[in-house]
């Protein structure tokens, strides 16, 4: 897959079938749109493409981060590539695009830059100045200018409309166990391991700490059953997200104890995947009480991993 990170890079593109949308979660609804785009492009002998923005439009309009990311940029690109896409138009959303007339958006970008012959988008896709462009305008212009439009109706699972907003809410409410159903993968956090207070090591539970990326959506403070991936190997683990209220005042971070693991990870990059929340974070009366609770947390997490390995989950 070839990635274009600015409009200036895009010249003399072959005819394309383009998936239109933010695709900020690349959830199951997004995956369906992209897969249909790829199949149509293959059938027509065109290139398949995804047109998205490298920043969220609402953040530009608010001039601050009001919508946090579900995926890291490289993770988003990798998932899109895995769906068989030829081109990713990953363009910054700027003031020029913000104020663009919807017809100019179609003529100058979709047709002029992307050489679009067909497009796929969700029923609620909006574009152009004041979000005045919609699926109906795309269809009308397509009839005039000779490109096809395919609109995906609301995509639901178990009666829930699958959207990035819905998935953000699941994560922020600690319902990480539901992410797999709607995203097709576990919710995860990546980061470089930093030096912590080393208390865990002294009480028999060494941990790997990664700082919270403020641009990313994060779960509420608490203890979670997790997987930790390092150097391509996935290990069962248990993770605390929070501020460590028993032992002092700290910034919110992600602290993971990896079972049966003794390597030094400072400065290394790990990925923590969240399976289920087991309890809220709270302040204990003493380090001894905290240590006892951590023992119980480990027993709970190990039991969960064991049952998952033995196939007792449906």
UniProtKB/TrEMBL annotation:
InterPro entries reported in the protein's UniProt record: FAD_synthase (IPR015864), Riboflavin_kinase (IPR023468), Riboflavin_kinase_bac (IPR002606), Riboflavin_kinase_bac/euk (IPR015865), Riboflavin_kinase_dom_sf (IPR023465), Rossmann-like_a/b/a_fold (IPR014729)
Chain ranges of the Riboflavin kinase domain: 182-306
Gene3D superfamilies xref list: HUPs (3.40.50.620), Riboflavin kinase-like (2.40.30.30)
Organism superkingdom: Bacteria
Catalytic activity: FMN + ATP + H(+) = FAD + diphosphate; riboflavin + ATP = FMN + ADP + H(+)
Alphabetized GO MF terms: ATP binding; FMN adenylyltransferase activity; riboflavin kinase activity
One Pfam family recorded for the sequence: FAD_syn
Signal peptide annotation: none
Gene Ontology biological process terms from the UniProt entry: FAD biosynthetic process; FMN biosynthetic process; riboflavin biosynthetic process
Pathway in which the depicted protein is active: Cofactor biosynthesis; FMN biosynthesis; FMN from riboflavin (ATP route): step 1/1; Cofactor biosynthesis; FAD biosynthesis; FAD from FMN: step 1/1
Entry similarity comment: Belongs to the ribF family.
Function: Catalyzes the phosphorylation of riboflavin to FMN followed by the adenylation of FMN to FAD.
PANTHER family, alphabetized: RIBOFLAVIN KINASE, RIBOFLAVIN KINASE/FMN ADENYLYLTRANSFERASE
Protein name per Swiss-Prot or TrEMBL: Riboflavin biosynthesis protein
């Amino acid at each position: 897959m070839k990635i274009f990170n600015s409009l200036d890079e895009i010249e003399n593109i072959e005819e394309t079938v383009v998936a239109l949308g933010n695709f900020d979660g690349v959830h199951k609804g997004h995956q369906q749109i992209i897969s249909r785009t790829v199949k149509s492009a293959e059938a027509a002998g065109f290139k398949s493409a995804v047109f998205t923005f490298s920043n969220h439009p609402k953040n530009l309009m608010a001039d601050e981060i009001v919508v946090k990311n579900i995926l890291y940029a490289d993770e988003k690109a990798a998932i899109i590539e895995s769906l068989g896409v030829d081109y990713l138009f990953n363009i910054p959303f700027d003031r020029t695009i913000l104020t663009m007339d919807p017809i100019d958006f179609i003529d100058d970008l979709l047709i002029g830059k992307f050489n679009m012959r067909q497009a796929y988008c969700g029923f609620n896709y909006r574009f152009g100045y004041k979000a005045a462009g919609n699926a109906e305008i795309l269809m009308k212009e397509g009839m005039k200018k000779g490109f096809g439009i395919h609109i995906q109706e609301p995509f639901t699972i178990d009666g829930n409309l699958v959207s990035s907003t819905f998935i953000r809410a699941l994560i922020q409410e600690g319902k990480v166990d539901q992410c797999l159903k709607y995203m097709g993968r576990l919710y995860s956090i990546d980061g470089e391991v930093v030096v912590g207070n080393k208390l865990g090591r002294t009480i028999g539970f060494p941990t790997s700490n990664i700082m919270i990326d403020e641009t990313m959506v994060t779960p509420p403070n608490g203890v979670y059953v997790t997987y930790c991936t390092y150097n391509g190997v996935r290990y069962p683990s248990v993770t605390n997200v929070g501020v460590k209220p028993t032992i002092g005042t700290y910034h919110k971070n992600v602290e993971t104890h990896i079972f049966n693991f003794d390597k030094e990870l400072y400065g290394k990059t790990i990925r923590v995947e969240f399976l289920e929340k087991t309890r809220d974070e709270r302040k204990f009366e003493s380090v001894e009480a905290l240590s006892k609770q951590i023992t119980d947390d480990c027993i709970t997490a190990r039991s969960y991993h064991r049952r998952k390995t033995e196939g007792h989950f449906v």
